C-alpha cells in the first residue's frame, strides 16, 4: 500500500500549482519601508531615488492575501488531500530556497507560475513519518511580464506525528480485522503532541546552550561591537567572523505582533500571539507573548523574559507582559 501511495504521489510531479499568477500590487516603496522597519534593515539601497527592493522580499510580491489567487490550480490541493486521506494530516514548513536574477524596483509588475517540483519517498523524522513536498515558483517582471527575475522553492513535510496511529500504520491491522479476538483493547489516552524541535547547528548552538542555562545570549562583533540576533556566522555590519556574547537583561517591548489562527497544529492551541520583541539592547527576536489574552496584546507593551519548559527536552524563551500594564 505504501508503494501504491508513492506512485500516486509521484504522478503529481511537474503539475501546475499556480498558473498565470499576478501580484496584487506592483513593487512599491511603502511595502519596502514596512519590511525594512520590521527587519531592522537600514541598507541605503532600499530608499531614495533608484531604490531597489530587498531581494528576500521576492515572495512578498506574489502573496495572495486572505482572498488567495484565482489562478491556483487544483493539483496542489488534490495532492494534500491525498496525503490527508492516507493519514499524513500534519504539516510543517521545513525550508525555502531563493535565487535572485535581477533586483526588483518600485513599479515592477509581478507575474508568476508555480509547479509541484518533487514529492519525496516516505521519510521518518523526529516529528513523524511522512513526505516532503517541494514547489518551485518562477517570478517574472518586465513590460511583457516574461523576464525571469527569481525563483522560490518552498518545501513542507506532510506527516503523521510520531506516536500517533495514522492510516498508513494501520494497514496490517485492517487486513486482520475479521480474525477472531477475545476482546477489544481498551483505548489509551493520547499524549499531547510535542512541539517541533528547533534547528540547532554550529552557528547557533551557543544560543541554545544559553537557553538551557536560562540565559538569553546576544552575539557581539569582536571588531565593531555590533549586536546581532538571531545568531549568524559573521557580522552583517562589517563582515568580521569574530564574536563574543552579551547576556540580555530580559526587558523589552512588543515591536510588532501577529495572532496565529491557522493552520492548526497538534502541539499548539490557536489563537495565540507571536511577537517581534525589541530587547533593551536594541536587537529584536520573535517569540510568544504571554500573560494577557491574545486579543489584548498591543504594540509598545513592556514585556519581560521568561523560560517555559515545553517537555522534558525542550525549553523556550518567551515574553510575559508586565503586570502593571496587564488588563484587569
What is this structure's SSE topology?
Layout: H1 2-10, E1 16-22, H2 29-39, H3 74-85, E2 90-100, E3 111-119, E4 123-124, E5 128-141, E6 147-161, H4 171-175, H5 205-212, E7 217-221, E8 227-228, E9 243-247, E10 251-260, E11 272-279, E12 284-290, E13 302-309, E14 315-321
Parallel strand pairs: 12-14
Antiparallel strand pairs: 1-3, 2-6, 3-5, 4-5, 5-6, 7-8, 7-9, 10-11, 10-13, 11-12, 13-14
Characterization of this structure:
With 328 residues, the protein is of the alpha+beta class. It is 14% helix and 34% strand. The chain contains five helices and 14 strands. The protein has helices spanning 2-10, 29-39, 74-85, 171-175, 205-212, and strands at 16-22, 90-100, 111-119, 123-124, 128-141, 147-161, 217-221, 227-228, 243-247, 251-260, 272-279, 284-290, 302-309, 315-321. Strands 1, 2, 3, 4, 5 and 6 form a six-stranded antiparallel sheet that branches. Strands 10-11-12-14-13 form a five-stranded mixed beta barrel. Strand 5 (128-141) and strand 6 (147-161) form a beta hairpin. The longest helix has 12 residues, at 74-85. The termini are far apart.
